[in-house]
Amino acid sequence: MESAALPRVVASASYPLMTPLQTKLVAQIDEGLSYKEMMPTIREMAEAIGGGGVIPVAKIASSFRDEGQRMSSLLHSIPRPLLRSIVTRTVSRDWGTAVKPEMLYSRDGPGAYLGTLSVAGRGGLTWSADECENLVSMIRRYADAVDVMWEARDAYGGSQLTQDQRDAIDFAARIDSARDPPAESDVDSGGGTDTEMETQIWQAPRELRFSSSGANKSQMARLLADMLDRRQAGVVGDDRKVFPPQSVCMVGNAGDIERRLHDHKLKNSLRGSANAWGLMVHCLSFMGLEPREVLIPVLKAWEPEHINLAEVLLTVLAGSMVTDGGLNVKQPGTRGFTSMGDAESNRSRSEVKAQHPWYRDNYGLSYPEIDRALVALREPIGDTSDRFVDEMNKMDREIRSLRKTIEEAAEDAAEAHKTTERLEKEAETLERILKVLNPDPDPNPKLE
Fold this sequence. Notes:
It is built from 17 helices and 3 strands. The chain is mainly α. The protein has a 3-stranded antiparallel sheet with strand order 2-1-3.
């Protein structure tokens, strides 16, 4: 039965990029279906993702066919309120209300994460259709400038460019620097006459920051603009002023989630972040719409194979491919994670299966017969599970302490080695000085 507190989510001004399959999955969540019952819909979503002829996507569907059991385990590790927020792409709006910090795993260790953007001062809501149309125009101008830069890469100083081409590059360069602090040269110091300024030679920047890495340098920007164009194209009338709760999402994976999330935080330079994320942030800032981010760990990996599979699953749930309404322009699940230490694996497994209730609750709904058996087994063993978790946590603390001790000992050894080398050099110097002051006696003295 559909929840009265949660209205049906369909494609609208508030949810401009909601596919029929996403609508179906949200309805299943609201009706209380088990995750096992939802899995066929999620597989359909994976099969339906296209790459627009330019992005390989075969890995997405094949991961569900080849690793169905692992995908199911990962799906069951997501709390239901968070799952709904991910599928509707409303994590920014729901953060702190429907989605709470206690629903998240720790940020350290391997797994998959999600990032989403909103506009400051709007309570987690995003940009209107009118604002989105301006974004599309801006990003397409940026893409044009990237093409001009690439085609004219051998033109020294841009001397062969037309004024329109120079203006396009200047516009893109201003987007690149939209979040940079003002440079000293931007402040009028009173030096130079108007005539001198007019006769300065125009110089193109060395490169535009958000160019794609492949042969088609403007591909990412054009895919992003096309996605945003679809987002606003069907919205008409007064609805074009509405600030939607549905945002755009970026999904990634890492061996250390915390370290990777650091690259995407807006207070940092974004030099290590994904280009689509960076370009969106810079364009919003250039428009005067201050962006706000929510970056959360969603899935923890307790097997090496989980790291890539988690990224694939989360990409499907969040609709994060740029062809599907998100910011990901590369096929997920292709990184080379091949191993995981036993301590790390046990720590993640304990966090997912023992330290939070939703994994057991979700599995209990999907497989009630197993849940009943576990309850029957749990009764005679009392608090064994709790004691196991306590022991795991204690072991983890001891390992961390030992690692710190080893690191400190290594630092002491390195310092001692440096001291030894310094003393040896000083001894050699002293020996050379003594030889000068007291030359060796003649080895064959004459006898008188």
